[in-house]
Amino acid sequence: MCGIVGYIGSKQACPILIKGLRRLEYRGYDSAGVSMINDRGELNVFKAKGKVDDLVAFLDDKDVSGTIGIAHTRWATHGVPCRENAHPHYSSSGTLSLIHNGIIENYASLKEKLIEHGYTFVSETDTEVLVQLIEYYKITYQLDLLSAVQRALAQVIGAYAIAVLDRSNPDEIIAARKSSPLAIGLGDGEFFLASDATPLVEYTHKVIYVDDDEIAVINRHSGVNIVTLQGQSVSPEVSEVTLDLGAIEKGGYEHFMLKEIFEQPECILNSMRGRINPDGTNVHLSSVIDYGDKFINARRYVIVACGTSWHAGLIGKSLIENFCRIPVEVAYASEFRYNDPVIGEGDVVIAISQSGETADTLAAIELARSRGAFVYGIVNSVGSSIARCTHTGSYIHVGPEIGVASTKAFTGQVTVLTMLALCIAKERNTITEEQLHEALQELLRIPDKMREVLKQNDAIASLSRTFTYAHNFIYLGRGYNYPVALEGALKLKEISYIHAEGYPAAEMKHGPIALIDAEMPVVVVATNKALYEKVLSNIQEIKARQGRVIAVVVKGDDTISKLVDYVIELPETADFLYPLLASVPLQLLAYHIAVCKGKNVDQPRNLAKSVTVE
Q: In angstroms, rounded to a whole number, what is the distance separating the alpha carbons of residues 581 and 576?
C-alpha cells in the first residue's frame, strides 16, 4: 500500500518521479505528490487529491525543477483523501519533506508530546507526526539529518518505509525501512528509490533491497551508505533484477487485468519450467530436495495467507492431504498470531503472498519461526521480505502483476502448490510412479487447455452484459472447486462492487437458499466427477426456486447444460487440476461485468495491490 519514488542525479527529477508514480499507482491511488529541491535551494512540495493524472495537471504551471526529489502515491490509512493529507509532508519550519508507506501505531502519543513543544499540524496523518518528530530532534539537539532520523525512528512503533529531503542538503536523500518494502536502484552517477523494482528497471537492473531497521544515506557524490538504527555500518548486497520492461506495460490490452488473465498459460509454463521435465516423468523442487527431512517428516502443515492467497492455500490443503496424507490447516495470517497458535518443531508453515510483503503474513512467519517451526514461502516478487525471512521457498515466476485483483498470481500459486504436493508425495512414497507420471503429464497440458478456455472470452463478455443489473451473486463449488467459488466471488466483489458470496455447494440448503429468486444469479462450478450427482441436485434446487444459473461444466456435459441458463465449458482434466481452468472464466466474468458497469478494474476503490499494513 502506497508507492514511494525517489531520484538523485544529473537529470531533472520530476519526469522520472512522475513516471515512477505511474508504475506504482497500483499500490495506492487516492492522492499523490512530489517534492524537489531546485537549483536555488528551495524545497517545493506539490500535492493533489486523486490519481497521478490529477497531480500532473496540478503541476502544469508550477516550478518543478531540480535534480533531487521524492514522490508518493497514497492509499489512505489516517485521514480522508485530500490535498492536506497527501504526501509529501512538510516539517513546521519548511526545511524537511517526507514520504511514508506504513502505519505509525503510536502516532497519537507522539503527536501530543510535539504539541506540548509548540508544534502544530495541518493534516490528520501519522506521517506528519514523523516528519515533525525528526525536525524536533534535529533542532533541539543540533543533529544532522541522519542522527535525527535515527533518534526519531527509535521512538516509533509500527511499520514504515520513508524518504526524507532536507533543504539544507540538496545532495542527499535519507531513506529507512521497517516491515515495508524499499529498493534502491544504482545507475550511472544517479540513484533511484522505490517501493519495488517496477519503476527502476527502465534505468538500471542493479538494486539494493533495504532490510528492516536499516537507514540508507543516498548521496549524490559518495553513493549509498547503509547503517542500522544504532549506527552500525552495513555492507549491502547488490541484486540483479531481470524484470522485463515490457512486462509492466499493457501490451495493447485495455486493462492490465485482462492482459494478466491472458498471460496465464505462459505464466504457468514459466512456473513449471525447470521443475517438471519435458516428458512429465519427474518433478524437482530444490527446496524439497535441500530440506527433504523437514517436508517428509513433518507432523503437519500450516498454510498462512490472506485474500486470494488464502484461497490458493485451501486448494493446497486438499492437494497435500490427498497426495501426501499429512494433515494440513489453513489460517488467515491476519488471525494466526492473535490466536496463540499451537505450533513448534515438526510443523511446516507454508506462507503464501503475491507481493512477498504482506504485513500479516510476515508477522505470522516471525511467530512461527520464533516457536521452532520450519517456514516455506511461496511468493512472486524476487528479493521480497518473505523471500528473505523464510527458511526456503519457491517463486511462482509469473512476472509482475499490476492489476489490483490477482489473477495470474493465483494460478501461479496453485501451480506451485500442485508441484509441491506431488514432490513431497514422491519423497514420502504416497504416490505410485504411474500416478505421478499421469499427474505431471496432465499438469503439463494445462496451459494449452487454458488457451482453449480463453477462446470463450467474447462469449463471456456477451454473457456478462446480462448481469450488470445484479446486486448479489452466489458462487457454489465442491471439493477442489469450493475455493474456486470463493475466489470467483472475491474477484466480482473487488472490481464490480457487486456483493458476492462463495459457498460449498452442499451448504446452500443450510441458509443461503433463502436468498434464491429470479433476481439472484448463481454461478456453479460443476466439474467434480466424484460429486457430480450431488452438485446436479443443488442446481435442481436452485432452478425450482427460479434462480438463474451460470454453470461451469466439462465440455460435452449435456445433463447440466439442459437445466441451467448459461454454460461455460472447460476441457476435460483431472479433478485436482480443475481449479486452474475453472478460475479463468470466473476472472473473465468478473472483469467483463465490471467493464460493463464502467468501473476501473485495475484500480478498484479502497483497495491496493500490496497490503503492507495491518
A: 10
Chain segment 343-386, per-residue pLDDT in tens: 999 999 999 999 888 889 999 999 999 999 999 999 998 778 89
Q: Is pLDDT above 90 for 332?
A: yes
Calpha distance 585→145 (Å, rounded):
54
10 Å CB burial of residue 565 (0-12, 13-18, 19+) is middle
Class of domain 3-246: alpha beta
How does pLDDT run across 458-506, given as a tens digit for each residue? 999 999 999 988 999 999 999 999 999 999 999 999 999 999 999 998 8
Is there a cis peptide before residue 88, judged by omega within 30 degrees of 0? yes
Q: How far is residue 421's CA from residue 320's CA, in Å, rounded to a whole number? A: 5
pLDDT surpasses 60 at 614 = no
Task: Say if residues 2 and 195 touch (Cβ distance below 8 Å).
Answer: yes
CATH number of 251-447: 3.40.50.10490
Phi, psi (rounded to 5 degrees) for 485:
-65, -45
Does the structure show a pLDDT above 60 at 613?
no
Catalytic residues: 2, 609
**Helix, strand, coil fractions of the chain, as percent rounded to 5:** 40, 25, 35
| Separation CA 463–CA 467 (nearest Å) | 7
Q: Do domains 251-447 and 455-607 have the same CATH topology?
A: yes
Q: What are the C-alpha distances in Å from 204 to residues 19, 99, 186, 244, 432?
A: 15, 23, 6, 11, 48
**Domain 455-607 CATH class label:** alpha beta
DSSP H helices, 291-358, are: 292-296, 307-324, 333-336
Domain coordinates of the chain in residue numbers? 3-246, 251-447, 455-607
